[in-house]
Design a protein that fits this description.
- The protein has 113 residues and is of the alpha+beta class.
- It has a domain at 66-113.
- 20% of the residues lie in helices and 23% in strands.
- The protein contains 2 helices and 5 strands; from the N terminus they run αβββββα.
- It has helices at residues 18-23, 92-108, and strands at 45-48, 52-56, 62-68, 78-82, 85-89.
- The chain has a 5-stranded antiparallel β-sheet with strand order 1-2-3-4-5, with helices on one face.
- β2 (52-56) and β3 (62-68) form a beta hairpin.
- The longest helix is centred in the last third of the chain and has 17 residues, at 92-108.
- The model has no long low-confidence stretch (mean pLDDT 80).
- Residues 24-34 have a biased composition (Low complexity).
- Residues 1-47 are annotated as: Disordered.
Length: 113
């Protein structure tokens, strides 16, 4: 006895080829999937204070800070700290740049193993 695979019995209400459409509900046969939108990642920002500035990420976590030297202390320096690194600079612009470099380096650093 030979079986004929080309002829399948039709059940009530179905037409040949509808099983493929049923397997993927919500998508038509010819349409491509729409690309998913990624959530925008906000870059870190500076939060300004009276005698200190903080470098924070989008969640509000402190990544680094810059503090002005104590009153009456000469010379006036800006002390910065980010992660395990710290230092002193003569201007706020340079201190901020050092914090941004240090935080950026920590984010790009590759694992050793």
């Amino acid at each position: 006895m030979q079986l004929d695979f080309n002829r399948a019995p039709l059940t009530s209400g179905t037409t040949p080829g509808t099983e493929r459409v049923r397997q993927s509900p919500g998508k038509s046969a010819g349409s491509a999937a729409s690309p998913r939108r990624r959530k925008k990642v906000e870059p870190p920002h500076w939060e300004r204070g009276y005698r200190s500035h903080y470098y924070r990420n989008d969640r509000g976590e402190k990544l680094g800070e810059v503090r002005l030297s104590d009153r009456g202390e000469l010379p006036v320096v800006y002390r910065w700290a980010a992660g395990n690194y710290s230092g002193a600079e003569g201007s706020l612009v340079h201190a901020r740049a050092r914090v941004e470099e240090t935080v950026g380096f920590g984010m790009r650093q590759l694992s050793l193993f």
